[in-house]
Each structure stands twice: as structure tokens, then as C-alpha cells.
Known about the structure:
About 35% of the residues lie in helices and about 20% in strands. The protein is of the alpha+beta class. A hairpin with a 6-residue loop joins strand 2 and strand 3.
Amino acid sequence: MFPALDRTDFDLLGLLQKNARLSNKELAAAVGLAPSSCLVRVQRLQKAGVLRGFHAFVDPGALGIGLQALIGVQLSQHSRAKLKAFVHHLLGRPEVVALYHVTGAFDFQVHVAVKDPSHLRDLALDAFTSRPEVQNIQTAMLFDTVWKDQWPDYSAPAPAVPAPRSRSSARRTTKA
Length: 176
């Protein structure tokens, strides 16, 4: 279970989502905390699993990735053991970028990054259709990936937290 988060926690999370490289001093100044208090809050958010990691976005082309795709996977068997084995198998593949367990016509959407169309074909045959629990796959090549923070007018959505109650909205009681 996650800890209760206050407005300062949400402000810290919003800042870190936009730029995870901000120093503790910069974070503290931005939210109006002493650096020591800010560090304690960020460490608490990490320990509680609210902050799950910090990532660097690398250009796929620099790694020899020439093609990315989404592979929709329909399973023929849905037992927990089979599902767990399939997920474990996919996560062991270096081409798998992300794995989404979804609803709809497919059970999974798998984001893969490969060198070229031949590599994608071989991956589909070797890692997907050869699996006994896979009934069907459908592959869609990705033309481009644009992250929200790449848009000049993008700003992270405000966290969904209730606004603090004002004194005037507090329940008033009168003596009878």
C-alpha cells in the first residue's frame, strides 16, 4: 500500500517526471523545502515504491535498432502457470521493450525493437508462434514514437488529488 501523498509529494513527482536529473537542491527550491527535508521525502517515495525508477531515453538508432513493432498475442491457454511461463519467456528476450497484459482481442501487446524486418520475422517465428500457449499473433510496425515531453507545449497533467478544504467549506455546527 502506498503512503498518503500531500501536495508537496505531488509537486516533487511532477518535477521528477519532467526532469529526473534535477538535483536535490533544485527540487527543494522548487517546492519550498530545505534540501534535507526534500531528500527525506524523495527517499520515502522511492522506498514506498511510488518512485519506481529513473530512466534515460536512448535513441534506438544508436543501438542498431532499425524497426520497432507491437505484437498482439492471443493465447490459447490462460492458466496462471502458462501465463507466468509466457511472460517469463518474453521478458528474457532482449528485443522486448515492454509487455502489456490487456483486454480485447489480444491478451498481450508486446513492444519489440529489432534490427530489420528479417529480425522481426525471425523473432515472431522463434519467440512467439513456436510457443504452445500462443494461438495467434498480429504484428504492427511502429513508424514513430513520440513521447509527450517531446512536444513543446506539453505540460504534465496535474495529479488527481482533492483540493484542500477551505475553512468556509468546513461543516459548521450550531448549538441548539
